[in-house]
Amino acid sequence: MNEIHIEKLQFAYAKDAPVIKGVDLHLQNQKTAIIGQNGSGKTTFVKLLKGLLRPDDGRIMVNGEGLSEKTVAQIAKTIGLVFQNPDDQIFKSTVLDEVMVGPLNIGQTPTEAKEHAQAALTKVGLSAVEKINPYDLNLAQRKMIAMASIIAMDTPIIIFDEPTMGQDVAGKAIIEKIIEELAAEGKLVLCILHDMDFAAAVFERVIVFNQGKVLLDGAARTVFSQKEILDQAYLDQPQAMKIGHALGIPGDCLTEGEIIAAFEKPQ
Q: Low-confidence residues of the chain, pLDDT below 50?
C-alpha cells in the first residue's frame, strides 16, 4: 500500500508570511481530491510532496521513508506530478519524444520508455498523433500529453494539478477512466481541483484547504454536505447536491445519476 504521512508541515515563501501552517495528514490508497480557493495552499502543498519545495518545519514520510533525505530526481521515481500548465513541462518536438522524457529520466531503457509512452498515449486517446509537434495541438490535448508523460513513468504515487481545466465532457470522461484505472492498479492518486462536480463524482476522499490549513477532510459526501464550512472557504457544493436539496430529495446527492435513481426508486 502506498502512503504519505505529513506531520506539522510548515512553509513560507517570505518570512512571517506562512503559506502552509502546521498540516497533519495521512494519505493512503484512496482517490483523493484537494480543493480550495486560489491562495489556499494547495499547489504549494503538492510541490512540497514532490520535493520541488522544502518545508521550513515538519516531516513528510513517503512509504516509510523521509522525503528530506532524497533528491528531486530520487523522488521522481516515486511521485509523478502533472502540472496545471502543460507548457511548463513540454519541450520536445514530437509527442512521443515528449512522453518518453520522464521514463528515460528515471532509468527506463529506450525500449521500455517507448513501450510505456505508447501505452500512455493510448490511455489518453492520442496514439494517432505521436509524431506531431505538441505545440501543433490544442491546450486540452497538450494537457493530455503532460498527463501521458507522467503515466508512462509508472510511479506508485501520481498527483494531477487541475487536470479537467479546459477539457470538454469527452476529455473529462477520459480523465475519470484514467484515475479509476490508476487506482485499480494500487497507485495513490491525488488531484488538485476547482471542479466540484468532478471531485464529487470521482473521488472517495476530499480535503479542503483554506488559508494554509486543512479545513475539512473526509468522504466526499460528508465533506460536500457541510455547506456552512464550505462557505467559509468560498467553495460551492456540487450542482447535483444543490439540485437534490432544491427538489427535496432525502440525503445528499453527489451526481446526476443519484438524482435520477431517487426519482426511479419505488415510493
A: none
- pLDDT for the residue numbered 267: 58
Question: Residues spanned by CATH 3.40.50.300 within the chain?
Answer: 1-78+156-234
CA–CA dist 165, 44 (Å, integer)? 19
pLDDT at 173: 94
Q: 3.30.750.200, 3.40.50.1820, 1.20.1440.230, 3.40.50.300: which CATH number matches 1-78+156-234?
A: 3.40.50.300
The CA distances from residue 115 to 97, 105, 154, 199, 210, in Å, are 12, 15, 12, 31, 41
Query: Using an 8 Å Cβ cutoff, are 212 and 40 in contact?
Result: yes
Q: Which of 127, 126, 181 is nearest to 154 (CA)?
A: 181
Question: CA 73, CA 70: separation in Å to the nearest integer?
Answer: 8
* Distance between CA atoms of residues 81 and 84, nearest Å: 9
CA 91-42-251 angle, to 5 degrees, is: 125
The Cα angle at residue 9 between residues 3 and 15, in degrees rounded to 5 = 150
Residue of 89, 34, 38 lying closest to 211 (CA atoms): 38
Model pTM above 0.85? yes
Hunting for cell 506562512 — which residue is that? 18
Q: Which amino acid is at 130?
A: E
